[in-house]
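Hi both,

Apologies for the delay on this - the queue was longer than expected. I finally got the pyridoxal-5'-phosphate-bound model through. Below you'll find the protein sequence and the ligand SMILES exactly as submitted, and right after that the structure tokens for the full complex including the ligand.
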Amino acid sequence: MQYISLGENKQRVSLKEGILKGLSDDGHLFMPEKIPELDPEWIKKLPGLSLQEIASSVLWPYVEEELNETEFRQIIQETFSFPIPLVNLHGNIHVLELFHGPTQAFKDVGARFLSRLMSLLHPAGDNKMIVLTATSGDTGGAVAHGFHKVPGIDVVVLYPKGKISPYQEHQMTGLGHNIHAIAVDGAFDDCQRLVKQAFNDKNLRKKIEITSANSINLGRLLPQMVYYFEGVARLQEKREDIHPVLCVPSGNFGNITAAVMASKMGLPVSRFVAATNVNDVVPRFLQSGNYDPHQTIVTLANAMDVGDPSNFPRLFDLFQNDIDEVRRFLSANKVTDAEIKETIKNVFDRYGYVLDPHSSAGYIGLKREIRENEQGFFVATAHPRKFVETIDDVLPRVAQQLREEYGPDFVSQSKKETMPASYNELRQLLEGIG
Ligand SMILES: *Cc1c(COP(=O)(O)O)cnc(C)c1O
């Protein structure tokens, strides 16, 4: 399998190059040159397969030329080492829980897969490599955990100061060793811009090897397809002919891109719903046909606070860059903070299930779009404990229970590294590490 850039130069690279570079030389995203279709007979057997069996078959075509089977098996075992349960909420609505990993959000799978792939593909003894990444909250913790103590690789995570939860901050700043978490005076978009600047800085890249661990990296994106195969497998244990509606709470649109890629590989899905918060550039695009990025607006679902989703070009490419094709298979739904809160309360009162703010948006999106005769699931992207501050507002007793069950609040560390949103500062920092 070769990977091909979505930019004008259509640069073609191997898996190794794609993973280590992150972006093409002219700053564009890589896509698999084609999406392999799985054997329909295998797809029929989905309900009887385990998570690791599913992951192996789905991901092997993407790596087979560059990994041997032993290496691959080990990556699969270490990546898919926690359960991804499907729970029925009520009637035709199910939730696929992606938050059982070490940082309690779905990004653990992508970060673990990527870190192991990178350390295998990056030859030992070469220059130190720096993984540079911007986070609106959850990426940082997952990447920091995924790469912690991986030899030969340093990690620099930029996050918007004061705009992520103390818990998220703790997951990044508490690790030390090869992990550098920096609070940037600015918004997530500033962090992302600084990262882009570093990648476009040819002089810097001559001196040090940098790569990304954001959802722009294929190594993050590919393993996320497995969620959707797993969800459909578990749903089809009940009835084999189910072609569900899937709803994904979306920020950079990586996770939903993986869901669409899964369907292109042959996974039976009837259609997709992207739920966004008020950062609604994609819902507006589907309405008006104009792609109009904007400054990030801070919301309760902060891992989805993205004004210009970095994976959107991939999603669009999967639909041949044809907006009518997108509209046929995917709808996008905007959810406000008030709706998120109200739904957390209502779903708990009615069904005894606690949603985090992101998953709440996912529930709302699915509920709005699904018809009575359809089955569907949304993905719960974070554990409610991770966003207990919001639960406090609407369900104080439940919040108290979450703290008792999953540990008390984290006090933000006194010694935090901070930085103005200035590229010069970032450059100096990188040169200091590299
Ligand atoms: C990252 C994240 C999202 C958004 O995922 P994208 O792939 O960026 O669309 C949603 N919810 C949570 C909890 C996240 O951490």
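Main takeaway for now: The pocket of pyridoxal-5'-phosphate is lined by residues 105, 107, 138, 215, 249-255, 303-304, 358, 381-382 (CB under 6 Å).

I'll put the files on the shared drive as well.

H.
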